[in-house]
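Reminder to self: tokens first, then the designed residues, so the page reads top to bottom the way the pipeline ran.
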């Protein structure tokens, strides 16, 4: 689990492209679960607001399961995490 967006989120989403696309290892799939808590609106164009559906286009989130196993919530994670 990585809290925060931008560079931390991008680092967390790199295994599939690095293993599958760069190193050419077979049968590497994107993450099955992706839960995003962000204060960045999608309209500002920052990496923090990239929804799970966009991660599918890069192969970072599993394209067959993302509709059932991913969620994006607009909130400050420091407020939401104690509730979780």
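Designed residues (84 positions):
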């Amino acid at each position: 689990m990585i809290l925060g967006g931008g560079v931390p989120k991008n680092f967390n989403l790199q295994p599939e492209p690095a293993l599958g696309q760069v190193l050419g290892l077979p049968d590497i799939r994107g993450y099955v679960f992706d839960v995003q808590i962000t204060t960045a609106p999608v309209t500002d164009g920052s990496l923090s607001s990239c929804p799970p559906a966009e991660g599918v286009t890069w192969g970072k989130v599993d394209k067959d399961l993302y509709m059932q196993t991913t969620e994006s919530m607009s909130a400050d994670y420091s407020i939401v995490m104690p509730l979780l």
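The chain is about 35% helix and 10% strand.
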